[in-house]
Structure formats: structure tokens, C-alpha cells
Amino acid sequence: MKWSEICIHTTENAVEPVTGILYEAGAGGVAIEDATDLDRNSENDGTVYDLDPDDYPEEGVNVKAYLPLNSFLGETVGEIRQSLEHLESCGFNPGDHKVTISEHNEEEWATAWKKYYRPAKVGSRFIISPAWIDNPPVKSGRQIVELDPGMAFGTGTHPTTVLCIEALEKYLEPGSRVLDVGTGSGVLSIVATKLGAEHVLGVDLDDVAVQSARLNVKLNHVDKAVSVRKNDLARGIGQKYNLIVGNLLAELVVRLASDNIGQNLEDDGVLIVSGLIRTKRDQVREALQSNHLTVCDEARNGDWLVLVARKDK
């Protein structure tokens, strides 16, 4: 299968909204090439990574995503360009926001992004590390989550995933039963188990994501507590859970609410949803409220946010 690499050259100021535009266009993940990474290539623990200057722009930031090469790609790129033109009026400096497109085979797509993926501290309790690093750095008090996202492309370091992990740290009670909707690479299911969940069910409609999540669950030795299966959101799942988490696009969160996700929550249960751009906040809040779920907490990371809701009494 052929994939198109969409590369947008922009500024640090506009990285988050540009990333949001690519996610809205259907990208499963992005790679960020920031020229300043070459200057700050060192972590507090002294770990230095082998970065190739040829992979980075001379100035500014390249934001790259991969989209299928299909008949409506031109339409999608047109929508991306249109959205970029509106960034300045929203208070961002997108720079030249030049868009370039190149073709890649599936094998290239599956490995090209790996050079940008390095261990990262997430939340207050975790380090997420690529599975191919033999000795990931260990910081006191943090647990390591090893990931090989493969074609599912979920490295666990996107702001929406970070927001979900921070919310899980805050709201997940040991012994909980957890439903992870749109599990992707399985990172939230793994984190939930390491936080003390008794059982986690991860579901995803994408066969590739299901395979990837199963691989990562085994890789992290939590396969006794986590099961993964193909499913369309939470449809047909009759069980109740103490906590449901979904890192999904706003439109899917609205659909999740309309599908009466509250019926899958215990009376004192918590729903955590992210994947949301700031401009979709009110739409999602209204959808949750209309389906008897009241938002009790929210947090932001740049232009992204997470909402936490409980069932109406």
C-alpha cells in the first residue's frame, strides 16, 4: 500500500494547532522535527540521543503525518491548506506553513518515524520508552511502559494521551474494572493495569490497532489483566465498569455519548475522554450533558483538553 507523507513547515508557536489539523484530516500520528531539539539533546539524567542534523530543518519545525494515497487525497490536502490559512486569525504564527507531499511504501511508513521516538516522562509515575531501546533510562519512582506502536502509530507521548494518563493517575482506584475505548497501541490499558486496575478491556475497530495493542500488552507482562478485542466503540458491551477512558476525536466522543455510554458505568463510575481540540470543547460538553453525564473536571495541554464526567444522580 502507498502512503503520502504530508510535511508542514511551521513555527514552534503553531506546532499544536498544526498537529490538530493533521489529526482532524485523519492522521493516526505525527512526527515532529524541531530544529531546537539538536540544541537541547540531553535529559536531566544525562542521556544523550544520536540525532542526525540532516533529519531536521535549519530553522522552525517540520510536522509530518502519513495519509493513505487514495482518490480523495487532493481534497484532504486542500482542506489542510485551508485550515492552515486560518491559524493567524486564531492568534498563532504559522510561519510560511509550506506543505510538501511525498510518497512512501507501507514498509517505509512503518519505520520512518522511529528515529524521532525516544523515552519520555509522562504523568508523575511513568516513562514511556520504545521497545527497541535495550536499557531505557529509569528515574526514581517511575514505572516503564515499553511500546512498539507499529502501524497503529500511538507512541503514548501525544498531549491527549498524556492528559489521559494524568487523569488515570488521579481517578483510577486500585481494583477497578476499566474499559479503554479506541485503545490504539494499548498504552492506556497498560497504564491502567500498572495503576492497579483489576481488569481492563481494550477495544478498537482497527484490526492493526488490535494486533498492536495485544503485542504491547504481552511486552509489558500485563496480559493476565488486559484483554483486547475488535469492537465499534462500546457498542454491544453489556458490562459495567468503574472507569471508562477514550482518547478519541471529538466526533467519536459525541457518538460515544449518544450511544449511551453511561449504561456501561457503575453508579460511582468515571468517564475520561480526550483527543479533543479546544474549539470542540463546548460541543463535547453539551453531548455529554444531553446524555446524562456531567463534566466534573477538565485539564488542558496547549490546544488539547481532557474532560472527566460522572453519571447524573
Please give the domain count.
2
Could you name the CATH class of the largest domain? Answer: Alpha Beta
Show unreliable segments: 41-48
CATH topology of the largest domain: Rossmann fold
Task: Give the C-alpha Rg.
Answer: 19 Å
Helix residue percentage: 25-40%
How are the strands of the largest sheet arranged?
Answer: 10-9-8-11-12-14-13
Secondary-structure-derived class: alpha/beta
* CATH-level-2 architecture of the largest domain: 3-Layer(aba) Sandwich
State the helix count.
Answer: 8
Description of the molecule:
By secondary structure, the chain is α/β, with parallel strands linked by helices. The protein has 2 domains: 2-116, ACT domain (Alpha-Beta Plaits, 2-Layer Sandwich); 160-311, 3-Layer(aba) Sandwich (Rossmann fold). Helix content is 27%, strand content 31%. The protein contains 8 helices and 14 strands. A 7-stranded mixed sheet has the order 10-9-8-11-12-14-13, sandwiched between helices. Strand 5 (120-122) and strand 6 form a beta hairpin. Helix 7 packs parallel to helix 8 (281-290). The longest helix has 13 residues, at 73-85. The model is unreliable at 41-48 (pLDDT under 50).
